[in-house]
Design brief:
It is globular, with a radius of gyration of 23 Å. The protein is 48% helix and 6% strand. It is mainly α. Helix 11 packs across helix 16, helix 15 packs antiparallel against helix 16 and helix 18 runs parallel beside helix 19. It binds a DNA duplex through helix 6, helix 11 and helix 14. Its cofactor is (6R)-5,10-methylene-5,6,7,8-tetrahydrofolate; FAD. This is Deoxyribodipyrimidine photo-lyase. Keywords: Chromophore, FAD, Flavoprotein, Lyase. One of its GO terms (biological process) is response to light stimulus.
DNA sequence: CAGCACTTGAT
DNA sequence: TCAAGTGCT
């Protein structure tokens, strides 16, 4: 039955081009049934990411319809749904693009085993990363724990050229029934209201490609220096699109590579940032405990504070530290936060407020529309001191010093704190009543003096060693 | 085993 | 100038 339909199980690869699984499926000549499953793992996404995924699904469904196809939406445990759809369509196989977190690996492995045991085809494909985590190894054959050697190992490697998007997709004689996306209520958990972040989202494959092209056209030149200044529009902002697979890493790699050969000054640095994502997934695959436990296991027992009132002030952007509060409000109102600001708020929570990095990670998971489990686990642990990197414990960011350095004119702080700015106004419209925040409220007194917080953190780190 | 290098800092 | 351990070749 070589003309039996094939089910394409889409997850974090909501695009048509640069898509190995889709390209191979089209080449097989079989009728294709694109499927998205709202399974328990996906239901568990943070509020903002789940809502943003809904936008991506709507866009992807439209793109598929433009090719004469559809996106079938079903809800339930993945294996049960796949078996139903296989039975309904007479399909003989399922294909998907691999993911690399422990939960996905367990789920997909079980799906593969169960389907193959019934004589069905179950095939996973690359495409989420530039390099499979098991294909990058040190001279000793192990995995990398340090970024720079990892970069040196992959920077010269060939990356397959992105496949062009198919022009048409053939479908089954009879389509299986599909849920209606709106019924899934993907934005239901957004306490701030689903529409708040909408103006800040750039959704879908066309938009992501345009974003990449625009970045490579101009901003990449000055990227290396300008990316550190949070008030400037100097970064690509592609993390949002990468998260849902609206663009693939190979498209970005080849774009960046071309820019580098054309002499764009910041292009290599841009490629390095893309490879940081890659490195995070490399670590996530080889050390899956990174998602939840201290990556350095000898940090067990470190006296982090559990969730507490200071952490709640941090979440609300009410620490009294202007740069920190601006950044936390940026995330709440836009669904994203500038990279440098992420480091500073993470340092402030874990060092000055001595609070467990997982408290911060959970809030990021709830608020970020570019939520990436590996990049966040690695980043939080790096800042906290328990993650990969040799000696970060004495690296305590001073938010006031950082503000002076990277937001000297105060433009970033004003944008999210000054009630006259549109972004700040949006913030005050969005916060839940229970937060009791008003535009005319005076800035809170700092939770802790910066030098005292620094000393307290360093003392705790010193005590850990003895 | 030696030697080298280490994303983003602070005072 | 500090601080200093460790991962990698």
């Amino acid at each position: 039955m070589s003309d039996a339909p094939l089910v394409l199980w889409f997850r974090r690869d909501l695009r048509l081009g640069d898509h190995p699984m889709l390209a191979r499926a089209v080449a097989s000549g079989r009728p294709l049934v694109p499927l998205f499953i709202l399974d328990p793992e996906t239901e568990a996404l943070g509020a903002a990411a789940k809502w943003r995924l809904g936008l991506s699904l709507a866009d992807f469904a439209r793109r598929l319809e433009g090719l004469g196809s559809r996106l079938i939406l079903r809800r339930g445990p993945a294996l049960a749904v796949l078996e139903q759809v296989l039975a309904e369509t007479g399909a003989m196989g399922v294909h998907w693009s691999r993911l690399y977190d422990a939960g996905s690996i367990a789920r997909d492995g079980a799906v593969k085993a169960a389907l193959r045991a019934r004589g069905l085809e179950a095939v996973s494909h690359e495409g989420f990363l530039l390099h499979e985590p098991w294909q990058v190894a040190t001279g000793q054959g192990g995995f990398y724990r340090v970024y720079t050697p990892y970069w040196n190992a992959v920077k010269g490697r060939d990356v397959a050229a992105p496949e062009p998007a198919p022009k048409r997709l053939s479908g089954p004689a009879v389509w299986p029934q599909s849920d209606v996306l709106a019924d899934w209520q993907m934005g239901a958990a957004m306490r701030r209201g689903a529409g708040v972040c909408l103006p800040f989202q750039v959704v879908g494959e066309d938009a992501a490609q345009a974003r990449l092209a625009a970045f490579l056209e101009t901003r990449v030149q000055d990227y290396k220096a300008a990316r550190d200044f949070p008030a400037r529009d100097a970064t690509s902002r592609l993390s949002e699109n990468l998260t849902y697979g609206e663009i693939g890493p190979r498209s970005i790699w080849h774009g960046g590579w071309r820019a580098m050969q054309d002499g764009a000054a910041g292009a290599e640095h841009f490629l390095k940032e893309l490879v940081w994502r890659e490195f995070a997934w490399h670590l996530m695959y080889h050390t899956p405990h990174m998602a939840e436990a201290n990556w350095r296991e000898d940090w067990q027992g470190f006296p982090w504070r559990e969730d507490n009132a200071d952490a709640e002030a941090w979440r609300r952007g009410m620490t009294g530290e202007p740069f920190v509060d601006a950044a936390m409000r940026e995330m709440y109102v836009t669904g994203t936060m500038h990279n440098r600001a992420r480091m500073i708020v993470a340092s402030y929570l874990t060092k000055h407020l001595m609070t467990d990095w997982r408290v911060g990670l959970r809030w990021f998971a709830d608020c970020l529309t570019d939520w990436d489990a590996a990049a966040n686990a690695m980043g939080w642990q790096w800042v906290a001191g328990c993650g990969p990197d040799a000696a970060p414990y004495f690296r305590v960011f001073n938010p006031a010093g950082q503000a002076e350095k990277f937001d000297a004119d105060g433009a970033y702080r004003k944008r999210f704190l000054d009630p006259r700015s549109p972004e700040a106004r949006r913030y005050f419209e969005a916060v839940p009543l229970s937060w009791q925040l008003a535009p005319d409220q005076p800035a809170p007194r700092p939770l802790i003096a910066l030098d005292r917080g620094r000393e307290r953190a360093l003392a705790a780190y010193a005590a850990r060693k003895s």
